[in-house]
Design brief:
- The chain has a domain at about 5-45.
- The protein is about 40% helix and about 5% strand.
- It has three helices and two strands; from the N terminus they run H-H-H-E-E.
């Protein structure tokens, strides 16, 4: 069987997903991903030129409410529910590293 994805690509994707795969799992994922990509290649060959494009399989209408100004909780009450505040804002842990 022709492999559309190589072993190194499976290992790279596993590393990015922080997965530790055994040799057997690498082989299985390589086969599974190749089968998946082969199915996609088959779908590309289907003539859909006469099919009207859609964004949903069924018709959907969204009932939207009016955007109206209403009352809100007092700022002090909201901030008191958080674990830590600084200068009137919630303090949260940094999740983005600074770039040098």
């Amino acid at each position: 069987m022709l492999r559309l994805i190589d072993r190194q690509e499976v290992i790279r994707m596993a590393r990015l997903a922080r997965l530790e795969l055994s040799e057997a799992e690498v082989e299985q994922y390589q086969a599974d991903l190749t089968n998946f990509l082969t199915s996609g290649k088959k779908l590309q060959k289907v003539d859909v030129s006469a099919v009207e494009g859609t964004s949903h399989a069924v018709s959907i209408t969204h009932e939207l409410r009016k955007d109206e100004v209403g009352s809100s909780l007092p700022r002090e009450e909201v901030l008191s529910a958080g674990p830590e505040t600084v200068d009137g804002f919630f303090k949260v842990p940094r999740i983005v590293e600074e770039q040098e």
